[in-house]
Amino acid sequence: EMCCDLKRRFLLLYATQKGQAKAIAEEIWQQAGVHGFEADIHCISEMDKYNLETEKDPVVIVISTTGTGDPPDTARKFVKRIQDKTLPPDHFAHLQYGLLGLGDSEYTFFCNGGKTVDRLLQELGAQHFYDTGLADDCVGLELVVDPWIDGLWLALREVFLLQKEKEDMSSNVDAVSSSLSAAPYNVHELNLSSRVQNLKLEDEGARSCDVLSQKLVDINLVPSARDTEPSLVHSVPPVSQSVLNIPALPSEYLEVQFHDTHGENPHLSSLISEGATFEVPITNAVQLTREDALKTALLLELDIAGTVFDYHPGDAFCIICPNNTNEVEELLQILGLSEKGEYFVCVKVKQDTKKKGAVRPQHIPERSTLRFILTWCLEIRAIPKKAFLRALVECTSDVGEKRRLQELCSKQGASEYTRFIRDCNVCLLDLLHAFPSCKPSLNLLIEHLPKLQARYYSVSSSNLYQPGKLCFVFNIVEFPACPARPVSRKGVCTGWLADLVAPLLHPKRSTPDTKGGRPATGKVSIFARPNNTFHLPADPSVPFIMVGPGTGISPFIGFLQHRQKLREEHTDREFGETWLFFGCRHQDRDYLFKQVCYLTDELRCFLENGTLTHLKVCFSRDSSTTEVAPPKYVQDVIRLYAKDVARVLLKERGYFYVCGDKKHMADGVSDAVVDILRMEMEVDRLEAMKVLATLREAKRYLQDVWS
């Protein structure tokens, strides 16, 4: 009863890059009311709407990580402000906060956005009222997010209880002796402890009531003898017989109006806020792998001569890509909107919505056709979040399908959500096929599907070596069929690019254009994504080592092209030695850049003219007839040259670059380097790890990796 009289407001801040942190913050905001709290929610960039310097209530922060461990763009101004070295160490001594960081352990600086803000707040005297949570998108954010939110309410109750205790003590301070004995403190602690325990029981009771008050469809799904395994659409005990804890129903906040009028869709450049976009033609395409290779790698060349687009070797750039045309048409058909694809859509916020601070999503144009929105604006391949599944429950008429969707978004069905939706890359289209009685409205899709993100690629050329050209390399991503998703798919961007350049790759199958017999090809819209660190050493005399198996070799081709041109232009300069460690499955199937049409064995050319000093290769799937089997992976080859690696890094202060797959390669390479440092320096592993950390901080051990 005492707690009900307390002021129970807390400040809720989120910093998001792609919408994940915002969605989680909104979930906290929704649950807060159920638990008797009032959450004052703001994007962390809205610094005119809150003031941490004067904030007296608890603060909850949800923050993601972007790039190579940076806070999201929306948090840059906030981070810059709290990094101010002139702030005193007790600047936030009055502040109590809890922080939930989002990240991906596939990357080196896991949750670094949240860790950075957490550290800065601590250094300025702020205190935790609740332990920091670090959620990993690699295994599923919900594994940490859900229990962290569950525990938040008790932690907040304890904060308000302590505040009440302090207020009571200060109001009675005149009646209390100035020389208090130890006994009253012990009594106070006992009373507080018992009240906190009561709150725990109270909280558990409240949760039970929440569960019982939910509108659940209680049906017995009795499995047949041949159908005892769960699947996307089928459940078995204990989940099928459980009372479920399901998320609160998200408030709808958008309304959609159709207009049968004529006009033009917005230019793609209006969808991008990161800078200038350039529409450039694809002038060449080469398949770098043989037809029987496990993966198909393509090299594309873009003509940027007529633009002001500039880049350095090691930079990345982004391509604005559309969703697959067939999937868009299929979605329109299932939604019953095939005839309205070319209608213009007006999206507005509902006047009576209960969603606080509801605004039209910035990635939805004010005026465009429905087909344009589904093609260029919404990530229709996104794995549906549990909140979306919860909303889909209300659009499903079949009792069994409704129950299964409830299970998949419930706590009891968490492992099945991971197994049948997350791990299988199931998207909205798959769900609508699996649950045919589910008929969501268009506004629900716009509310829950995230923005279609541009895809970024490492540059594989040098503007100095090939003026006016930009090359890049990629594997065509393949998603094989699985029981939860019976159709195979290609990656959104790589599949689109492969279709776009098919006339260049297979000219005999294509219709030539009218100007000279060359197949017509498309254009792509690109914008810059500079990499501030993954560049050649400023001093050309410094040696460097490159590790790039598979398409990880891509930026190093640009490095070597640039180095070759510099050597030609500055014959009097000293240039440091260069090492390239490359690996692939088969020497005769996917040895990239070994024999590439117009490139004619570019790697061999680099070796012969001295641009590349050492080339070390390995082939993981080729059989060997030698008595001692050759190393299979780049990390194994690196170990064979331990003394050279140590010399370059320690004695000659060289650079070490790694590009490619994070999980299966980059971690193995860093382990190999640690082992080399340990042996060559004759120190223990911990000390060797510290040396590698120092190299990272000095920007001499650099990674460009992906999951």
From TrEMBL:
Q: Which cofactor does it need?
A: FMN; FAD
Catalytic activity line of the entry: 2 cob(II)alamin + A + 2 H2O + 2 H(+) = 2 aquacob(III)alamin + AH2
Q: Which SUPFAM superfamilies match?
A: Ferredoxin reductase-like, C-terminal NADP-linked domain, Flavoproteins, Riboflavin synthase domain-like
What GO molecular-function term can you cite, just one? flavin adenine dinucleotide binding
Where does this polypeptide localize?
Cytoplasm
From which domain of life does this come? Eukaryota
What main location does UniProt list?
Answer: cytoplasm
Q: What class of enzyme is it?
A: oxidoreductase
Q: Tell me the ranges covered by the FAD-binding FR-type domain, including all copies.
A: 275-537
Q: Which residues are in coiled coils?
A: none
One GO term under biological process is: homocysteine metabolic process
InterPro entries annotated for this entry? CysJ-like_FAD-binding (IPR003097), FAD-bd_FR_type (IPR017927), Flavdoxin-like (IPR001094), Flavodoxin/NO_synth (IPR008254), Flavoprot_Pyr_Nucl_cyt_Rdtase (IPR001709), Flavoprotein-like_sf (IPR029039), FNR_nucleotide-bd (IPR039261), NADPH_Cyt_P450_Rdtase_alpha (IPR023173)
Cite a GO CC annotation: cytosol
EC nos = 1.16.1.8
**Domain named Flavodoxin-like: residues:** 10-153
Keywords (alphabetical) are: Amino-acid biosynthesis, Cytoplasm, FAD, Flavoprotein, FMN, Methionine biosynthesis, NADP, Oxidoreductase, Phosphoprotein, S-adenosyl-L-methionine
> What do we know about how this protein assembles, alone or with others?
Forms a multiprotein complex with MMACHC, MMADHC and MTR.
Name of this chain's protein? Methionine synthase reductase
> Organism, per UniProt?
Cuculus canorus
- Lineage, uppermost ranks: Eukaryota, Metazoa, Chordata, Craniata, Vertebrata
